[in-house]
Amino acid sequence: MTELDHLVVAARTLDEGGEWVAARLGVEPQQGGRHATMGTHNRLLSLGPGRFLEVIAIDPEGAAPARPRWFELDTPAMLERLSRSPALIHWVERTDRLEAALEGYPVAVDVTPFSRGSYRWRMALTRDGSLPGGGSLPTLIQWEGAHPADALPDAGIRLASFTHEAGALHAVFATPSGSRAIP
Description:
Layout: E1 3-10, H1 14-25, E2 30-35, E3 40-46, E4 52-58, H2 76-84, E5 87-94, H3 98-101, E6 109-116, E7 119-126, E8 139-143, E9 158-165, E10 168-175, E11 178-182
Parallel strand pairs: 1-4, 5-8
Antiparallel strand pairs: 1-5, 2-3, 3-4, 6-7, 7-8, 9-10, 10-11
């Protein structure tokens, strides 16, 4: 069984992505950390218990990874898309049993371990860095211990609804100032 863990907003830079989220939701995500294995870094925004929104970008101070970056961040198509604007590009679902959740998963993936500070997790990543199923399937994650949403300040933002069809994502958020959508 899986459940929504986090939404992924990609941007050329974290500043650009943070400003884009703040303009839509009224709150700027806070500093997250670096993912040395992928050469990326992030900012995070709580969406309530057990959920968050991640802004991710290529880390200009990070080393190029030995494999393609996750979420298609290296592809010409994604680079072109992000040159126009940050975007809600994907979602991640969590499970307590990653290998069991992958039984019958229709895409070839590698289970890859990660760590950042006190956080430890494993993710099922496509070998070429593409979004699973062309963006029609979630990326799966298993947290091993602490979850980042538990340490984030609560800004009163909640995910009211989330849909994904053929790679097109749409999220509606309940914010202190009313309902806001991100297509």
